[in-house]
Amino acid sequence: MIRHQRGVALLLVLWVLALLSLLLGGLAGWVQLEIRQAAWHRQHTQAVLAAEAGVALALQGLADPLQRKQWIADGREIPLLFDDAQLHVSLRSERGKLYLNSAAVGDFARLALACGATQAQAGQLAKDLEVRRNQGLAPFRVIEEVRQLPGMTQALYSALVPEISLWSGLDRPDPAFASTLMRRALNLPHLSAVGADPGEVLVIDSRAQRPGGYHAQLQATVLLSPAQGSAQPYRVLRWQE
To answer: What are 162-200's pLDDT values in tens digits?
Structure first.
């Protein structure tokens, strides 16, 4: 009887030890996962901060009359270093984009075709845009409103966004700052952006690559010299990560 009780006690102890081992193993795995996630979050945050530094360096260059000549707003990339991060920063002038609130609807249709729309889809979008204007509706205030046009798909919207503007104020894009796609769509001449006035609204793209493969990308649309005597030399109009 005593031997039987000792055997049961031993089995119970072994079962408890196995259960504890299982629990400790799960806890150790959870702790390791948390450590890896924390490390990734820290590295990603550092990459985002490096990308933000790229935006700041571009703004600093634009504010300096000597450096500003090096920043051509036609999308060309400028490689920079920040701490241990490799940066690729570029500028694009809003003057090279299609201004949604006054551009000809025919130009909008041709741009939509160049971005992958079908003939019927492009025609419908142009018609919807014309109806919106004729009804006296409020002008577009944020780019995302374009997504609400009937017939607009996510794929077409993604292709259109880099080519449309709410801030250029031009009836037609400035060929000096237009993208290759825009020039082809609207049959614009190929002009150099060197020495041309990019205007006061610019898009800054900043990509940061850190050791270990960690990377981040930011896009900021900024208005330079927002007001006379303003404490800030620029104002952010749109910010995307």
So the answer is: 999 999 999 999 999 999 999 999 999 999 999 899 999
Helix, strand, or coil here: 110? Answer: helix
Helices (H), the chain: 2-63, 65-68, 105-114, 119-134, 154-160, 180-186
Does the predicted model carry a pTM greater than 0.85?
no
Which carries the bigger pLDDT value, residue 12 or residue 219?
A: 219
Q: Which residues contact 155 (CB under 8 A, 6 or more apart)?
A: 116
User: Would you state the pLDDT for residue 176?
Assistant: 96
Residue type, 5: Q
Question: Quick one: 106 and 142 in the same domain?
Answer: yes
Check whether residue 207 and residue 88 sit in a common domain: yes
- Residues 160, 105, single domain; the answer is yes
Say yes or no: 103 and 148 in one domain. Answer: yes
Q: How many domains does the chain have?
A: 2
C-beta separation of 202 from 63 below 8 A? no
91 plus 112 within the same structural domain: no
Among the listed residues 200, 224, 167, the one whose alpha carbon sits nearest the alpha carbon of residue 233: 224
Q: pLDDT higher for 29 or 147?
A: 147
